[in-house]
Write a structure and sequence with these properties.
homodimer; mainly alpha; 10 helices; DNA-binding
Chain lengths: 245, 245
DNA sequence: GGCAGATCGTGATGCTGCATAACGAACACG
DNA sequence: CGTGTTCGTTATGCAGCATCACGATCTGCC
């Protein structure tokens, strides 16, 4: 336990440069509205030359991998933070907050959202065990936490669709065994559908397919969407007098 | 009204080449699991050289534009064909068939699906009036047809969420005035949510985020999803004894 | 303080793909 | 059987990815 800094001056400088590269890449993505970013452009924007970037990232895929990994964390943290700002007993409010965070993050970082939850990138090969599914797991865990909390509080009603196939129950047992005791297969199914609903709206809006709707109408539609998802899955329905998203 | 062929031999050959270029591009996209396709690869796969392709498409964007336009048509036709195979009076069946076609098309052509309804392509500039929103319009029109048919048959129940904001009603009046007489704003809102639900599941599955579910579980989840959407929007719920999608 | 080693950034280089231009081959038509 | 168009090729310029060798800078240790 020394008082010496955990990282040397050089390491800090290096981390700062890595961070600057990533943020510059994201800025360029935002400006050009694409996930296709060039080392040359990043370097030029930073006042450097392209080969210098190879000191920090092995190749373009490594940079993308890092951005995707950051995306996982950023999205997960945004969800956790939004839900954490609401009291544990207000499960409906937590759901609305998390859903709103999901939407807002996708709107503010559509390219990173596309990297993480959109179509897998071109030559991108999963580093270990497929991070593509990891994003799914991450989002699912946040949702699962909501449902588990609701179940423990006794405020988790039955889902609108009460039948669930044995195949779904089997997958729940295999991949989310920790929740099998508290969450019925039909509710697990409804949880997946809740995610799909949220994701569907978010994708449509983030990629401009709802631009023909006025912003106010989109907000209203989203709020209604969040309430519908709660209604369908047995979650407490968020209060309608508080703005969502 | 002559009996002469509408197209000369040369024109037919040209159209065939154009079609071959597009299908080769799609094949390469499928094989490489990306929307990023190179003229060089297309030409090589066709036993030609890259510059020859410029006789048929001004540049890479023009090819993408054509593929996107084809995507609109293909998706729209797939939906119309699937729905058309079901009797007009079975609105629930038509909805299930159309939803299944949406899903299957996205699964069989994930790259084209990404082009049409995913994130807008990099340097791609909308040729006229933004075809991005045109895809939305197209999909919406198919859905709107279902709801209008249900309304005319008197089998369209109330949506689960009966409140709709004035902003949504205004957008309905502005962009879909033809249906304002038969479709209440709350149902219009539910229609959008139905689309978002369908789109969300489709995106998650097409991009591999549901791969951890067994195929049988995914099928069951989708069937349940389609029934839930019908339930939420007031459409007749599809029969559960007929496989969906 | 000064030196050895590691780190960092640059210019030079090779490869590939996009796009254009100029040339030659094949075809339709009178 | 010529003539003009269409088509496909080779040749060229340009930009980005990736690597290498070199010089500059910084770190840490004696």
């Amino acid at each position: 336990m020394s008082v010496a800094p955990l990282l040397s001056r050089r390491d800090r400088s290096r981390l700062a440069t890595v961070a600057e590269i990533k943020s510059t890449a994201l800025t360029l993505m935002r400006e050009n509205a694409t996930t296709d970013v060039t080392f040359t452009d990043i370097a030029r924007a930073m006042g450097m030359t392209a080969p210098a970037l190879y000191r920090y990232f092995d190749d373009r895929d490594a940079l993308l991998t890092a951005l995707i990994a950051d995306g996982y964390s950023a999205l997960g943290e945004a969800l956790a933070e939004a839900a954490g700002a609401i009291g544990d007993d207000d499960v409906g409010g937590r759901w609305a907050a998390a859903a709103g965070a999901y939407r807002q993050w996708a709107r503010s970082e559509p390219q990173q959202f596309a990297l993480v939850l959109g179509m897998p990138v071109a030559g991108y090969t999963a580093p270990e065990e497929g991070p593509t599914t990891e994003a799914a797991k991450n989002a699912m865990d946040q949702l699962a936490g909501l449902f588990l909390g609701a179940a423990r509080l006794g405020v988790l009603g039955p889902p609108l669709i009460t039948e669930a196939s044995a195949a779904i129950a089997a997958c729940q047992a295999e991949h989310h065994s920790e929740m099998s005791a508290l969450i019925a297969p039909a509710t697990f199914q409804a949880m997946l559908q809740t995610w799909a609903m949220l994701h569907g709206f978010t994708c449509l809006e983030a990629y401009g397919h709802l631009d023909w709707l006025e912003p106010a109408a989109r907000d209203a539609l989203f709020a209604s969407h969040v309430r519908l998802a709660a209604l369908a899955s047995g979650l407490p329905v968020p209060r309608s007098d508080r703005p969502i998203g």
